[in-house]
Amino acid sequence: MLNYYTVLNPYLGSHFLPQAGFVLGPSGLSRAPSIHVFFFQNFAVDFYESMALYCRISIMFLLGLEMDISYLMRNLRPVIIIACGGCLMCTIFASAISLFVYEETGSRGSRFTLALVITVVLANTASPVVFRLAADLKFATSDIGRLAISSSLIGDMYAVLILVLISGEKQKRTVNGWALMAFCSLLLLVGIIIFTTHLVHWLNKRNRDEKNLQAVEVMLLCSVILVAAMTLETMGFSSIIACFLMGSTFPRGGKSARTLLAILTYTVRNFIFPIYFGYSGFKADTSYLNELKRVAIVLMVIVLSIGGKIVGTLAACWYLKTPLNEGVLLAFLMNMKGHVDILTLTTAMQNKVLNSSIFYNLMVSAVVISSLITAPLISFLVRRESDTIGAKHVPMEYHSPDKELKLLTCVHSRHPVDCMVKFVVSLRGSDNVPISPYLMHLIELPEKTKKNSSFYDQEEDEFSDDEVDDSNDAVEINEAVDMYIEETKMMIHQVKTVAPFSTMYQDVCHFADDIRTSFIVLPFHKHQRIDGKFENDKDGIRTTNQKVLRNAQCSVAILVDRGHTTSGTQAAGSESLQQIAILFFGGPDDREALGFSKRLSTHHHSSVTIFRFLPTLAKAPNEGINVSRKEDDVVVTIQDQQIEVDEADSSALANFYHRYVTSGKVRFVEKYVHNGAETGMVLREMAETYSMFIVGKGRRGDCLLTTGISDWEECPELGVVGDFLASSEFDISGSVLVVQQHR
After folding, report:
1. How far is it, in rounded angstroms, from Cα 616 to Cα 737?
2. Closest Cα partner for 519 from 606, 621, 437?
3. Burial of 43 (0-12, 13-18, 19+ CB in 10 A)
4. Residues forming a β-bridge with 627
5. Region 468-483 average pLDDT
6. pTM for the structure as a whole
7. Whether residue 97 has pLDDT greater than 50
8. Does residue 390 have a pLDDT over 70?
9. Judging by beta carbons within 10 Å of its beta carbon (0-12, 13-18, 19+), is residue 47 exposed, middle or buried?
10. Where are the alpha helices (DSSP H) in 462-538?
11. Among residues 76, 95, 241, which one has the least CA distance to residue 158?
């Protein structure tokens, strides 16, 4: 779901924020006269509400900027069903108790308006709290996490629509007046979105040699968003949805999005978010709970709020056939409060639509207490079900090409970026299949710098041009990624980590676990010069690769760039046909490499050929696999008897053949060889034909087909065949991908 991320210590416990405000407010320390005078001066109410408005604008814009809109659109039906299930039950409960609460709290005015307020209190789900809580508990990128965040947004929109109705009670506008103002507001929002889009494109093209926007440019963008939000508030409409829409439609590619996201992420998570949601707890005044019936009203609201969400959400999950444990977690997540509900209560009191301070304080207390109860329960459920909630690692051998693919690619410098991005574009498959690629820039932090650096300094580096890394590399990487995003219209999420080589592998592995990636692609520790010779990069790069191979909880691949971006291929968006060879000798790593071909074969600019190597002794008439050629296409007939192939390899090849070879998506060729020397000769014959070779690292046992393929093994992390393909004695123009399946 995050478009730009720095691997740093995560912000702790958003569910403790209302509790902190609760301690400082009238229910806690502010009972003391001296503290009460300090916090509740004459101008305090207006100041706090203005501060809350600015915080709300920042939070919702950032939420839109970080939101995975493509997931929301793909899963709109289940998202709406889950959100509507909880909202419908809570609306029914609110209608049932509104008359009782109206009488018992001594309220005056419209009973219908009070019922609307109670509906918001019961039905609202604070989407920023859900998002922050899911991120803190490390399941925001899982299917259940994204479903909860998306559903909470729909619940927020439902509450905002009710808030608009309540706000209109004061203006007493006619239907035509409301329609005119709504049209003007919509027109303003559309105009701001269009203007912002053009402004961002213009800013991205200015000063291309700079990594981030200048401070004046950032202030310009923030001012446009702030003025638009304040104008909508002045017109009588809440800016919550508008700010979210401005964030979600903000152009993602380019330095404007990177700069804004880095600055807002640091500011909101560390300052604005604690202040805003701490303020919701600060407003609760439990001194009004001095009578048994008032305590009963608060308990009734809490029980009906939690009960309505549980009943409605579980009913929706039963209809959608969602597992019970995930349904229970969703139900409690949908009960997180402290956002639109607090705003609705405050707006109703300020507009004199409600005039009962008893009702106001009881509802605020119910909202705060409900969140304080729910958040620890969610933490308990997530930790208890950590092995079952969310997506587990699915090897590429079993990964369906029709399902969403998450992958993490890593680069240390500008050299392998084109090759990495080209490979990612090839894995995109058909246009309607989702893919979530991340590109992580690994920056070495020297030990002496590490000793003098702090957490704050590293956060500040996120939007500073004066970093420990080479800023030219960062600029060139950003430009390359932006170019591919513009050409392919595929979002590549950029990631950065700053760490010494000794611990860099931990950042890579932890981030891969957080986003639940299917595999990691690492750059080779050498890069090819113009004359075709390899030049060693820093030794720490190779050490990092070896540690990631040993410690990663998913499959890992090493990409050797050998002309993948020059003579063998063209730009990612071109119409050239890319020839890809998958080398299959047998074993789990080769089966994982075979799994890549499923995805690659669905891309309309890729031609995939599987080369299966077999010993010459296995070649016999009417046995094994017979290959015949017809009009340059390879037709394969698989007989019942398999020769010298283990059961897993036979099953994988048979399934692959029936799905991809018979349909013509993939070509299949058998190569019969005596030993590794003959294998090397066959590979040399293929050298100039293919722009990429994909092979498993090894784990083939005593394989005669690869023994003696080369005089020595220079890079054991590539395996025998991978090391041969990447060696100086093997002259090819195509890149090499060496795959290791997670053990």
Report:
1. 27
2. 437
3. exposed
4. 636
5. 75
6. 0.82
7. yes
8. no
9. exposed
10. 471-488, 501-515
11. 241
